[in-house]
């Protein structure tokens, strides 16, 4: 029984978006912003056409091209497609957007980029909104106090047709990060620590709220990194209370409210915090001060260790399923049980993805690259999250830092995070990647992914092996 | 969709925990703009050798499980991405249900919308079924959604939970969009109330 009267942040957003709640059916939830990309939308538009339906609220629908987009241009400035299927998928999105009057940030457009980078960057993402996209990393937008989550293509069709979704009310789970992380320990390390602690199914059925001093101290980009990987713990969404940093980030953004409207919006948004007497279905506290840079060693994001720890030894595990899973993952990754990851040779470094491709991520990586060279034989790829990020990085000279170090500086997109556009690692290769998934073959068939922060990825790039970035930051 | 009727079928075991959607269907097969032929890509990297020939050790290639319509997996099946290509590929392959001890949220929702029944069994019942299948790969299981049970030939019955609304949709063979479209007056009123 619920004893307190206070409401959680989730409840405040949920309850203001309920269109209908009928017995025996999930709630009908209104969606403020629907983001669309080329991979998970074509069959939804086909479904609409089959029923003769139109898009109910085209102005609440925004599309971008990101997954199938090339990150390479030829010398005459044209994008280089490796597969005609990629190009065809982009053309289908363009045609669907034209037919339904949906604004599209197409390949090459100044507003183009990864969907979860451009939404916040343009000021489309506001506190208190409900936001969906046919993409599990939609949880990113929760960093603004929005309720944002990934949906399947059937649901994309539902939202296109009705601007609503049927959804059972999820449970709530607050994770409080106490203390202050040390130098070289970033937002990525906080979220990797949580996922390792609770597992890839640890938050299934729940909306996470991240709180505590270590979260409050993060800038908006760090908060997006944390919320981005909520799905990797199985959560429905991840949210962070709106505060002055949220408002400062949004002020002046192209699609954010302006002038008196902005002031009025901030007055509303200030209430988007969990009340002091709100209760959560679950709670967990993590000591951020004790964290070190982290890496995953295995084949899901929960298989992670601190950079100074050995990988697990299945012989020490009593649970049969856990033992089998650990053995299988170690074998796939080519790792020896109980040995440290430090010093492990690395073939590829990828800095990018909706998790870590924003300007602060590139600045962090550049701190390590500056004045150093990419290790001999290693391939390093730096892929900004959007054209806006690319422009800013080039204005700051970060592109020159990367290129002079020997890294490749690319056009924006999802790139090697999902390896749909030709940017991929080879069978057996080891990549340290700032992306969000280390599943078998995720970055290329047979490839082996170690997930880490931009600091840790850059440290691997300049040393050719898994290296504690703190040893390179402290000179 | 066809109404979901009781059926009896054989099982195929891929009893691994945390089977992610990148294993169910790798991202390189998501460049399509339709749903055609995805069953051939199901579990592609576990199912085929580098040269495209079937890996004999993978259960989908094992003749003992030929014709199976139920997949037996482990804990947290379908974690990872929201791609509905995962249930599309399972259905296109000919599967009608997946039995596991738990499912990832988005996958479960996607499966239900495609007439693929996610059957969540208690660990003890799951272990017993797995042992039964190991002893007799041809064992048939009867799935009854209305009763929310699966039954072995010896009469052993296990029950499983299903969201009542999803159950109704499956039994009637209708989809959620029809329900949502019928809420148009409420949606319009909600929009009007926000100004």
Give a structural overview.
The complex is a heterodimer of chains A (475) and B (195). Helix content of chain A is 32%, strand content 16%. Chain A is built from 16 helices and 19 strands. Chain A has a 5-stranded parallel β-sheet. Chain A has a 5-stranded parallel β-sheet with strand order 17-16-15-18-19, with helices on one face. In chain A, helix 2 (42-51) links the parallel strand 3 and strand 4. The relative contact order of chain A is 0.13. Chain B is α/β, with parallel strands linked by helices. Chain B has a single domain (7-193), classed as Aconitase, domain 4, CATH 3.20.19.10. Chain B contains 8 helices and 7 strands. Chain B has a 7-stranded mixed β-sheet with strand order 4-3-2-1-5-6-7. The longest helix of chain B has 13 residues, at 123-135. Chains A and B meet through helix 2, helix 3, helix 5, strand 8 and helix 11 of A and helix 4, helix 6, helix 7 and helix 8 of B.
Topology record:
The complex is a heterodimer of chains A (475) and B (195).
Chain A: H1 9-15, E1 18-20, E2 27-30, E3 33-36, H2 42-51, E4 61-64, H3 84-100, E5 103-105, H4 115-122, E6 130-133, E7 147-150, H5 153-162, E8 164-167, E9 171-178, H6 187-198, E10 206-211, H7 213-216, H8 220-228, E11 237-239, H9 244-250, H10 259-269, E12 282-287, E13 294-296, E14 304-306, H11 320-333, E15 348-351, H12 359-369, E16 379-382, H13 387-395, H14 398-405, E17 408-409, E18 430-433, E19 448-451, H15 454-463, H16 470-473
Parallel strand pairs in A: 3-4, 3-6, 4-5, 6-7, 9-10, 9-12, 10-11, 15-16, 15-18, 16-17, 18-19
Antiparallel strand pairs in A: 1-2, 2-8, 13-14
Helix pairs in contact in A: 2-5, 6-8, 12-14, 12-15
Chain B: E1 7-13, H1 21-24, H2 44-47, E2 70-72, H3 85-93, E3 97-100, H4 105-112, E4 117-120, H5 123-135, E5 140-144, E6 149-151, E7 157-159, H6 164-172, H7 176-181, H8 184-194
């Amino acid at each position: 029984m619920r004893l307190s009267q206070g409401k959680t942040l989730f409840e405040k957003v949920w309850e203001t978006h309920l269109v209908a709640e009928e017995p025996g059916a999930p709630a009908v939830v209104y969606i403020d912003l629907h983001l669309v990309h080329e991979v998970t939308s074509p069959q939804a538009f086909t479904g609409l056409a089959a029923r003769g339906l139109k898009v109910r609220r085209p102005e609440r629908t925004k599309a971008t091209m990101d997954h199938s987009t090339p990150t390479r241009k030829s010398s005459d400035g044209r994008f280089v497609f490796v597969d005609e299927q990629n190009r065809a998928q982009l053309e289908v999105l363009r045609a669907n957007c034209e037919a339904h009057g949906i604004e599209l940030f197409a390949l090459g457009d100044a507003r183009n980029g990864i969907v979860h980078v451009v939404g916040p960057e343009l000021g489309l993402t506001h506190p208190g909104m409900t936001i969906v996209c046919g993409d599990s990393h939609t949880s990113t937008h929760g960093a603004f106090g929005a309720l944002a989550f990934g949906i399947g293509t059937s649901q994309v069709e539902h939202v296109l047709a009705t601007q609503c979704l049927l959804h059972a009310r999820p449970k709530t789970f607050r994770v409080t990060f106490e203390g202050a992380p040390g130098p070289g320990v970033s937002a990525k390390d906080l979220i990797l620590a949580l996922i390792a602690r609770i597992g890839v199914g640890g938050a299934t059925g729940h909306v996470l709220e991240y709180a505590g001093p270590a979260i409050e101290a993060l800038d908006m980009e760090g908060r997006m990194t944390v919320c981005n990987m909520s799905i990797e713990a199985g959560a429905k969404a991840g949210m962070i209370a709106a505060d002055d940093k949220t408002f400062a980030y949004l002020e002046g953004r192209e699609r954010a409210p302006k002038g008196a409207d902005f002031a009025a919006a901030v007055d509303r948004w200030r209430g988007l915090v969990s009340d002091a007497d709100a209760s959560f279905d679950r709670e967990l506290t993590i000591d951020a001060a004790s964290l070190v840079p982290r890496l995953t060693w295995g084949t899901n994001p929960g298989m992670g260790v601190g950079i100074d720890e050995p990988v697990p030894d299945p012989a020490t595990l009593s649970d049969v399923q856990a033992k089998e899973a650990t053995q299988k993952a170690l074998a796939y990754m080519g790792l020896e049980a109980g040995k440290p990851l430090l010093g492990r040779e690395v073939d590829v470094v990828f800095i990018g993805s909706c998790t870590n491709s924003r300007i602060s991520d590139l600045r962090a990586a550049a701190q390590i690259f500056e004045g150093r060279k990419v290790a001999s034989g290693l391939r390093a790829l730096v892929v900004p999250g959007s054209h806006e990020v690319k422009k800013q990085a080039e204005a700051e000279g970060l592109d020159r830092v990367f290129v002079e170090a020997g890294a490749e500086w690319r056009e924006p997109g999802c790139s090697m995070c999902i390896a749909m556009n030709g940017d991929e690692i080879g069978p057996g290769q080891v990549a340290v990647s700032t992306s969000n998934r280390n599943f078998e073959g995720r970055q290329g068939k047979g490839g082996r992914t170690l997930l880490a922060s931009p600091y840790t990825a850059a440290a691997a790039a300049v040393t050719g092996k898994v290296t504690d970035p703190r040893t390179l930051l402290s000179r | 969709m066809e109404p979901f009727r009781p059926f009896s079928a054989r099982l195929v075991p891929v009893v691994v925990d945390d089977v992610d959607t990148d294993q169910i269907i790798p991202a390189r097969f998501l460049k399509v703009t339709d749903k055609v032929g995805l069953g051939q890509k199901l579990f592609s990297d576990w199912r085929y050798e580098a040269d495209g020939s079937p890996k004999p050790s993978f259960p989908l290639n094992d003749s003992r499980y030929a014709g199976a319509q139920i997949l037996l997996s482990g804990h947290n099946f379908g974690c990872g991405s929201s791609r509905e290509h995962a249930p599309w590929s399972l259905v296109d392959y000919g599967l009608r249900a997946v039995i596991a001890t738990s499912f990832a949220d988005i996958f479960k929702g996607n499966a239900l919308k495609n007439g693929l029944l996610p059957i969540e069994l208690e660990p003890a019942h799951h272990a017993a079924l797995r042992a039964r299948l190991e002893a007799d790969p041809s064992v048939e299981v009867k799935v009854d959604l209305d009763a929310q049970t699966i039954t072995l030939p010896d009469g052993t019955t296990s029950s499983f939970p299903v969201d009542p609304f999803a159950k109704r949709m499956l039994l009637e063979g209708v989809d959620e969009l029809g329900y949502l479209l019928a809420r148009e007056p409420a949606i319009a009123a909600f929009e009007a109330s926000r100004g």
